[in-house]
Amino acid sequence: MKIAALARTAALVTAVALIPATTASMAQVDGRAGPEFSKLFATYQRIKASYVEDVSDDQLVRGAIDGMLASLDPHSGYLDGSDLQRLETMIDGNYSGLGLSVVQEDGAVKIISPFRGSPADEAGLKAGDYITHLDGELIYGGELDDAVARMRGKAGTSIELTIFRPGRDEPFEVDVTRGVIELEPVTHELMPGNIGHIMVNEFSADVGADVYKAWRMMQEEATGRMSGLVLDLRSNPGGSLDEAVALSDLFLSKGRIVSQRGRARGETLLYDAEEIFRGDMAEGVPLIVLIDAGSASASEIVAGALQDHRRALIMGERSFGKGSVQSLLPLGRDAALKLTTARYFTPSGKSVQEGGIAPDIKVPQLSDPDLALREKYQTRESDLRGHLVNELGLKDEALESDKIDDPRFQLTAEELEEQGIEDFQLHYALETLRRTTKSSVALLD
Length: 445
Known about the structure:
The protein is 27% helix and 23% strand. By secondary structure, it is α+β, with helices and mostly antiparallel strands.
């Protein structure tokens, strides 16, 4: 069955990423809900009898389902037809389009992040941009699925996007040529000084094993012992919970990695180290994990586990703050619910919902010429309408950023470009590792 096949793949790459639960149960309908269902049926009958135009049963039932799910949280939804096909292509990681992760915000299509190396990325589209028109046609107030479907298309064809970028006075048009989006979950590069740089772009199948292979390849390429590793999770929207656990397990030899707690029986699960990989593959090697506002869900599980166990120094910007688990629940052969069924917690018991993972060292991306404007309008989980509230009662001041100017971060994007620095956050992480010995940074065990 189509739904069963999708459930087994355990991966969906979006900014509000599906982290499939291993079990799911359907709650019985409370008998006291009878009067409320009678109101729903009465509304259906009134619309069928009196609305100015004839309305199909499919339209009304789908509208009722969408309305119920929209009242819950931004990550629950109903999938059928083209939605399920889109899920399949995302899982395969191979489709033709622009390479964008988007959400709908108050009727507008907002970019969470362009995938690295995608046509959208190369065209200069940025996180926080709003897409208002496609080929000159207004899409504000329409369905997100319709906009996504229009941006997909045959590789080599182009589409004109009208972009509103916060901080600019006028919208502008960008022509983007569609390409085949073949996401590479893991890429790596050996940097000068025998420092490894591993980029994890999504948490699809075998990410843990791919990171292990990348580490071994860099060890063989190095002129001596590896002196440091940067694990780059920036703009990684998440994916498989199992792969997040596997990646964390590569660097941990004991202790809890993450716990999942839900209301239904079977939705409370504990994940510990040493269940997938034995030992710390990079034992004794200083580790820095890079995160930003686009690091969500599975990325936050990894960063939180390595931070709580003091195995890594977390660097960059506060993460997205998605601390919930979605399960794919079949509804017949060709439809399913993507339903939030649990929250997850770091080893210390912290929920990242709303607050995200705070870096040990906050490093702004000074290479971005629109940094100040982007920080002002950055979208995180706490900005999404209807998001789950942190059950631990996170205070507002915990989400506020430090406004004091840091003397280390005063260079402009233009000055960095003159110095040949294209990625300041990565540059800062590499320089930190080059100055680091095992005993000089307490967080690096």
